[in-house]
Amino acid sequence: MNIICLLFSSISLVSAFSLIASKNQRSIRYGGIAEPTFRSPEQAGTSGATISMFLGQGRKSSQKKSIQTDTTKIGDITIPSIGIGTISWSSDSLTSLENLELQSLVSTACRENAAFFDTAERYGSRFKTALGLGWGETEMLIKKMVEEEKERALVATKFTPSPWRTTPDSVVEACRQSCKRLGVEKIDLYQLHMPDIVKPLRIFGFAQESLDEVYWEGLAQCYHEGLVSNVGVSNYGPTLVTRCQQYLKKRGVPLASNQIAYSLLGRGNGAQETVDKCNELGVKVLAAFPFAMGILTGKYNSQSSSTVAEGTITSLTNNCKTKLEIKDLNRYAKGDGKSIPEGGAAPLLSAMESIAKRRNKTVAQIALNYCICKGTVPIPGARTQAQLSDNLGAMGWRLTPYEIKLLEREADQLGFEFEGAGFKRTSEKFVGYGVEKWTLD
Questions:
Q1: Backbone angles phi, psi at 372, to 5 degrees
Q2: Which pTM value belongs to this model?
Q3: Which residue in 58, 96, 129, 376 has a CA-CA distance of 20 to 30 Å to 65?
């Protein structure tokens, strides 16, 4: 009896000390922003292991389930909260469509119910696309990759506004060609790639009328002819997306999405206002450049390899970026003392790494989860299974309002916005005869 009493007294004493400790550590403080303390099982040591044992040893299966149920709606389709960008996909062969690494990625995405691929008719291998010969190649590559998992894969593609495409029928015909290349009767989401900005005669002083409404009519015809399930746009600001939605509504067509460049480093220049307007209108934003071309993965200036994804580390030695792009990205990451203050994105990366360590996540996962928390669907590019697996780790949980506030404060204090690198810009495109720009206004 005395032994039992002694045992209960010991337990009570330990509990009392634990209670005192928890009261003294109610919150942690990130640079002046108080946040409730949380502990993952990994951080909780033996107690966490004991909890895991009693709550179920299949933590991985539980995480897998949460990933598979982390979804959102775009129009009438349900997609994973993170998509897969395909702009960097290409075949390993010059004569056929083959890429074993991509095949493994696609198989994993389909198996995990995370197969939402975003592509475009103009995407192809870097060499062919530069020569204007790669159109449709990535669409055909996707067709081959998902052939055995077609029922599990959702695909979004894009129509490219061009000077020779001047009628609604040109949109419909391009859509039919994309259907053929993708091997489908109906495209899940068909988007305009950008506003009608390609005006080659403008440099000679000739006024060229905007064809935006012509292309909207083309989307409506694609929808009514049953070629597409949903329609969307890309790089539209609040004004243009509102006009487009109103036009399509009169034609009985809902506007499902608007794809723009958006990230922790890319909320200015109208991006955040566009997200807010789209959320108000019920138009889902697809966030391109969610990693700011790798800056927000810790790839260029991480202080801790434990928070950098395996696929990111590998990509340092297998980088397909041009020298000009790498030069610009290093300038963003580390600063140049001119347009980018010394230190570059380092203060933001430090805050991201702090949160990543506490959550047992990677910096890249913090970047993606931030985009999800803001109501967008990030579309990170992925070329390997390791990169895909890390991206999927950003689903099934959410940053707290405190963490979001901290990250935004650090980003705002940097004094610069990410606007792209090399010839890949967030608000302009190289179109052969020069560069055309758009604004999110």
A1: -65, -45
A2: 0.84
A3: 376
